[in-house]
Amino acid sequence: MVRLFKAIPALFLATLAAADLEILRPNSNVWWVAQSLNEIAWTCNDSPYSQFTIFVNNTDPTVLVSPMAVISVQENFQCSITISQNQANQPAGTGWTLLFASIFNSSEIYATSEEFEIKPLGSAYPTQATTDTSASASGGASTTGTADGANTTTSGALGLKAGGVFSALAGVIGLGALVL
Question: How is domain 21-155 classified at the architecture level of CATH?
Answer without folding.
Answer: Sandwich (2.60)
